[in-house]
Design a protein that fits this description.
Layout: E1 8-10, H1 23-31, E2 34-38, E3 44-48, H2 51-59, H3 83-86, H4 98-109, H5 114-138, E4 142-143, H6 144-149, H7 151-161, H8 168-179, H9 186-209, H10 215-223, H11 233-264, H12 266-274, H13 279-289, E5 297-300, E6 305-307, E7 310-312, E8 317-320, H14 322-325, H15 360-377, E9 382-383, E10 405-407
Parallel strand pairs: 1-2, 3-8
Antiparallel strand pairs: 2-3, 4-10, 5-8, 6-7, 9-10
Length: 413
Amino acid sequence: MTPRQEQTVRLPLTGDSPLEAPAAWETLRSGCPVATAELPSGDTAAYLTRYADVKNVLADPRFARPAATDPGAARVAPDGAGGPAADADGSVAIPDRGEGHQRWRRRVGKYFTAKRMTALRPGMTAMAESLVDAMVERGGPADLKASLGFPLPVFVICEILGVPAEHRERFSHWSDAFLNVTRFTAAQTRTAQTEFTRYMEAHVAAVRADPGEDLLGMLVRDGGAEEDGGPSDEELAATGMGLLVAGHETTANMIGKMTALLLADRSRWERLVADPALVRTAVDEALRFDANSGFGIRRYLTEDIEIDGRPLPSGTTVVCAMPAANRDERMFPDAASMDLTRSPNPHLAFGAGPHACLGQALARTELQVALEVLLRRLPTLRLAVPAGELHRLEGLLVGGLREVPVVWEESAA
């Protein structure tokens, strides 16, 4: 083993500010593309930072997110905190690998079509307009994350799942307990999981009795009874829980991070105000450029492999650093610069391969709608504090900012 393969880093790696990339990424990509990472649990894993390596592992159907039953799998969270989103414990009924996983993806993927996203867009826009109206009425400075970033995705995902949006504060608590590995004790996380499971089980029972046009209703109507090969109540509940957590927490945080990135160098914002047609490419570039996206995606090796000359035996946990891969000059020219016109943009923010994010079309649509409404309604928007004074949300698996304080010219609103 050469010296360059012996570097150890402690996760999560952070930059000088929540919007800046850690300098260590470039050092690792050039000199130690397969490092050793120490996770908050104290366990260690292989740490990949090059685009090609990350994409190859994510796209390899042999490797899936570690489960509690995988021998020697590295845990993210200390003492079991973080729930099944951090360390799969076998209680979640969604199969995470093999044909069972692909069958589940085919079922759920039927909902997330381009046609349905187009149909959802007017309602998203109206909701975003209403939320901005309320923010403007309260006056600045305002927290964009609390005013728009959090409520917009939760309203959307509640509509998709057919659950009441007025329960959003409960959803926020439950998802935070699932995704934050430092804020809650293991007992608190278990309590949140029990509450969330009971809630969703009751909702599934109601959907079974009267399936609507939402995603779970579609799964019940199309799949039929469990004895006929349809989804079980446990699978439906787990699907609802997973989508509620992933469907609002990640996008809520990304709306805030995207806006902060664009306002940190206000020439970016002004360019979009002048040319709103750039919104689509700007959203994907914000996804690529986001350096604050948590711990990375873990994969458990079920066979011996070799990456960049380093042998990795079966049983190794690999952490794929997507944001580091998204800054790889081998794939993205001038990768350290935010190019609002970048196209094509094959970033890995949504993963790759058989486990790529099912809801990426939904997330893109929500981000585009949020940005379009802000540009149109608040062209004078700016950060209320220097970008370097923003604070990251500590311990969150998906990365985020505590708040995004903004101001605007009242007469322009």
